[in-house]
From TrEMBL:
Class in the EC hierarchy, top level: oxidoreductase
Its EC number(s): 1.5.8.1, 1.5.8.2
Species: Allorhizobium borbori
Protein's UniProt name: Dimethylamine/trimethylamine dehydrogenase
Organism phylogeny: Bacteria, Pseudomonadati, Pseudomonadota, Alphaproteobacteria, Hyphomicrobiales
Domain NADH:flavin oxidoreductase/NADH oxidase N-terminal: 20-349
Length: 702
C-alpha cells in the first residue's frame, strides 16, 4: 500500500483544448504535445546535479512535451561565475547530464540542452581565461567588472566552432533529443555577432546581415551534420533588443530568420535581454512578447516556440489556431506548476497553480541559490526533501490540527495537511482568506498576486476535512479551550513605524504630532493628511517603490529616499529594478539615494548623507516608513508562557510559522506552511543530521 496520496480527479476536457495535445514533429524527433519547457536557469547547476535532474524529471512527469536544461557552458574559456550553471567542458560532465536526461525520459518527455558560450557576458572569474567577443569591449555584466573581452580573430572562430562541435557530440552521448544553438537574450557570442550593438567588425563576420549571421549559420550547419537524423537542432534567437536600430530589432531579425528559414529544426523566439523577456507581472501582462513574435511563422516551415508567461488555456489555443506558435513555451509557469499540461489534459483547471509573475524564481539564479517559487514551495525540493508538487504523504495519525491565520503560510499548511488526510481547523481573524497576499494584490501592479490566495482557497473548497472559521481572533484561552493536539500559529506580521530596519537597529526619534505611516496603514486605506509625503525605503524589495507609486497616483508630492544606491535595490535579483525606477521617475516621484532618515517631527524630517553624515531638514507633511516588520507573535508568546497548561488541554505542540516567526517574502511563507505540513508526524532527525540531502564534490587524488 502506497504511503502517498496523489491529489486530483480527472474531469472531461473541453474539446477545444485538444489541439494542445497534438504531437509536434521537430526534425527527427516528435514531442508528444505542444507544451514546451524552454531552457531556464535555476541556481543549482553543477553544484546540485541530482536535485536538478529530479526537478526536470518532475516536469516531465507533469506532461511537458519537451523539457530543457538551462544554459550549459560548453568550454572553459567562457564561464559565468559567480552564477551556477551546468557545464559540459569535458567527458567528466556527461554523467550528471545523463542523469537528467534519464529522469526526463522516464516521464515521457524529450530532453533538450542549451549549449552556451557567454563570451563577453562573463569575466571568467573561475578559469581566469581572457574573455572573447566580436570586438574589443568591456564585459557586459551587471557588476561592471573591470575586465575587457578581446576581439576574436579567425583562429578563435575556428576554435569556437570546434569546441561547440565537441560539446554537441558529448550532448548526443548524454542522450539529449534536442541540441540548441543559442543566440538569444544578449547572453552569448552568437547574439553578440548578430547585433550591431556589439559587432563592429569589417570582415566577413561583420557589417551586413549576411555576414553577421555567418557564424550562426556555420555552427548550426556543423551541429546538424554532427547529429544527423538522431537529434533536433533548434535555434534560439531574440527578435528585438528594444534598442531601436542601435541593436537587434524586429524587422532585421525577421530578415535573418527569413534567410535561414528552414536550416534549424525549430525556432525558439525571445526578447533581449533576459529582463525584457521575463518581466514581472507588475510591468508586463501575459503575452507581452506577442507583438515581437507575430509573423515569424510565415518565414519558415519549421515549428516555432515562444513564451509569454502563459496561464490562460484559451490564449494558448488561440496562439496555435492563429498560426502564431506551434508550441507553447514556458519557464516561469512550468516552475509554478510542473503539472500544468497534465492538469489541462485532465480538465482540472481549478487545480492549476498559476504563475504570479513575481520573479522570485529568477532571484535563485542571481543569488546563486536553488530556485524557489511563491506558488510552488516544492520547487527544487523534489530530491533534497523528497517533496512532490502533486503528491503528499498520508497522515500518520487522525489527530486534528488547528491553524491560526489564513494568510499564505496558513493556507498552504491547511491545504497540504488536508490533502494528507488530517482533520484541520483553520481560524481566520477576518472575513476573507489570503492575508498579505490579498492585501498586497490591491496595490499598483500586484493584482496577479491574488492567485496565491485563489489557488489555495480552491483547494480548500475540495477538502471536506478542512473547516474554516471566520471572524475568529483567538486568544490563548480560546486555543487552550479548543483541545486540539497540534497548533500552527500563522498570524503574519505588521510593518514597523519606529524606523528600525537594515540601517537603524534602534528606533529613531519621532516627535509628538508627527504624522508617521507604514504600508499596513496605506493598505488599510489610511492616507496622509497633507500633500508633501516622504517615503523612506529601508526594506529594499518592492514595497517602498509601490508605496511611492501609490502616493504619486493619488496626487501627493512624493519624495522617495533610500540609504541604498538606487530604488528597490534588491529587485535587481528579480530583474525589475530598472523598471521600478523608470516608473517612479515617470510618475513624478523625486528620488534621493544614499540618504538616511534620522528623526521625524511635525511637518519635517531630519535626513543625512550616508557618506558624510551631514544632516539637513526636509519639509514633509507625512513620512511613510518602509523599513521592517514585526511578527504578530502575541498569541504565540502567550501560549508559550502557559506551556504548563498544554497537557491538561490536550496540546502536544504549538509552532509559529511564516511571518509570525520571522517576516520574509511570500515565498518564504508558503514554504514555511508546506514544511510544517510535510514534517508533521515525521521521523525526528538524528542528532547532527541535515533536514535535506546534498551532494559533495568528489575529491580527486592529491
Amino acid at each position: 500500500m502506497s504511503d502517498w496520496v496523489e491529489w486530483g480527479t480527472p474531469q472531461k476536457r473541453p474539446s477545444q483544448y485538444d489541439v494542445l495535445f497534438e504531437p509536434v514533429k521537430i526534425g527527427p524527433v516528435t514531442a508528444r504535445n505542444r507544451f514546451y519547457q524552454v531552457p531556464h536557469c535555476n541556481g543549482m547547476g553543477y553544484r546540485d546535479p541530482t536535485a536538478l535532474a529530479h526537478m526536470r524529471g518532475v516536469k516531465a512527469e507533469g506532461g511537458w512535451g519537451v523539457v530543457c536544461t538551462e544554459q550549459v557552458e560548453f568550454h572553459y574559456t567562457s564561464e559565468i561565475t559567480p552564477f551556477i550553471e551546468l557545464r559540459l567542458w569535458d567527458d567528466r560532465d556527461i554523467p550528471a547530464l545523463s542523469r537528467m536526461v534519464d529522469k526526463i525520459h522516464e516521464g515521457g518527455s524529450l530532453a533538450g540542452i542549451e549549449l552556451a558560450y557567454n563570451g563577453m557576458n562573463g569575466p571568467n572569474l573561475y578559469t581566469r581565461e581572457v574573455p572573447m567577443g566580436p570586438a574589443h569591449l568591456p564585459v557586459a555584466t551587471f557588476t561592471y567588472d573591470p575586465v575587457q573581452a578581446r576581439r576574436m580573430d579567425m583562429q578563435d572562430i575556428r576554435n569556437i566552432r570546434k569546441w561547440h562541435l565537441e560539446a554537441v557530440r558529448r550532448a548526443k552521448r548524454a542522450g539529449f533529443d534536442l541540441i540548441y544553438v543559442y543566440a538569444a537574450h544578449a547572453l552569448g557570442f552568437l547574439h553578440h555577432f548578430l547585433s550591431r550593438r556589439y559587432n563592429t567588425r569589417t570582415d566577413e563576420y561583420g557589417g551586413p546581415i549576411e555576414n553577421r549571421i555567418r557564424l550562426l549559420r556555420e555552427i548550426t550547419e556543423d551541429t546538424k551534420a554532427a547529429v544527423g537524423d538522431t537529434c533536433a537542432v533548434p535555434i534560439r534567437i531574440s527578435t528585438d533588443e528594444l534598442l531601436g536600430e542601435g541593436g537587434l530589432y524586429k524587422e532585421e531579425v525577421e530578415d535573418m530568420i527569413g534567410i535561414m528559414a528552414d536550416l534549424p529544426d525549430l525556432w525558439d523566439v525571445t526578447l533581449a535581454g533576459w529582463e525584457n523577456d521575463s518581466r514581472t507581472s507588475r510591468f508586463a501582462e501575459e503575452g507581452a512578447q506577442e507583438p515581437f513574435i507575430m509573423g515569424v511563422k510565415r518565414l519558415t516551415s519549421k515549428p516555432v516556440v515562444g513564451v509569454g508567461r502563459y496561464t490562460s488555456v484559451d490564449r494558448m489555443v488561440s496562439l496555435v489556431n492563429k498560426g502564431v506558435l506551434d508550441l507553447i513555451g514556458a519557464a516561469r509557469p512550468s516552475i509554478a506548476d510542473p503539472f500544468l499540461p497534465k492538469k489541462i489534459e485532465e480538465g482540472r483547471f481549478d487545480d492549476i497553480r498559476e504563475c504570479i509573475g513575481c520573479n522570485i524564481c529568477v532571484s535563485g539564479d542571481f543569488t546563486m541559490s536553488p530556485v524557489r517559487c511563491t506558488q510552488n514551495p516544492t520547487m527544487a525540493e523534489e530530491w533534497r526533501k523528497g517533496w512532490h508538487p502533486e503528491k503528499v504523504r498520508k497522515a500518520r495519525s487522525e489527530k486534528p490540527v488547528l491553524i491560526v491565520g489564513g494568510g499564505p503560510a496558513g493556507l498552504e499548511a491547511a491545504q497540504t495537511l488536508g490533502k494528507r488526510g488530517y482533520p484541520v481547523l483553520l481560524a481566520e481573524a477576518g472575513t476573507e482568506l489570503g492575508g498579505r497576499a490579498l492585501q498586497e494584490a490591491k496595490l499598483p501592479g500586484l493584482s496577479a498576486w491574488v492567485r496565491v490566495a485563489d489557488y489555495r482557497k480552491l483547494q480548500l473548497n475540495q477538502l471536506a476535512n478542512v473547516e474554516t472559521y471566520f471572524d475568529s481572533r483567538l486568544t490563548a484561552d480560546d486555543v487552550l479551550a479548543f483541545g486540539v493536539p497540534r497548533i500552527a500559529i500563522a498570524t503574519g506580521a505588521t510593518w514597523r513605524k519606529d524606523g528600525v530596519g537594515h540601517l537603524h537597529t534602534q528606533p529613531i526619534a519621532i516627535a509628538e504630532g508627527a504624522e508617521v505611516l507604514c504600508p499596513s496603514d496605506l493598505m488599510a486605506g489610511v492616507l496622509p493628511k497633507g500633500k508633501r509625503v516622504l517615503v523612506w525605503d529601508d526594506d529594499h524589495y518592492y514595497m517602498g517603490g509601490v508605496m511611492a507609486e501609490l502616493l504619486a497616483e493619488k496626487g501627493y508630492e512624493t519624495l522617495y529616499l533610500t540609504p541604498a544606491s538606487e530604488a528597490s535595490t534588491w529587485t535587481r535579483n528579480t530583474m525589475e529594478q530598472h523598471f521600478i525606477q523608470k516608473r517612479l521617475i515617470e510618475k513624478g516621484v523625486s528620488i534621493r539615494n544614499f540618504t538616511a532618515v534620522d528623526a521625524i517631527a511635525a511637518g519635517e524630517a531630519t535626513i543625512s548623507c550616508m557618506f558624510t553624515g551631514r544632516q539637513e531638514r526636509l519639509e514633509a507633511d507625512a513620512v511613510v516608513l518602509v523599513t521592517a516588520r514585526l511578527p504578530n507573535e502575541a498569541l504565540f508568546l502567550d501560549l508559550k508562557a502557559r506551556a504548563a497548561e498544554w497537557a491538561d488541554a490536550g496540546i502536544e505542540s504549538i509552532t509559529a510559522i511564516g511571518d509570525a516567526l520571522a517576516p520574509a517574502t511570500i515565498a518564504h511563507a508558503t514554504y514555511a506552511g508546506r514544511r510544517y505540513a510535510e514534517e508533521l508526524d515525521g521521523e525526528p532527525l538524528a542528532d547532527g543530521a541535515l533536514p535535506f540531502k546534498r551532494e559533495i564534490t568528489e575529491l580527486l587524488p592529491l
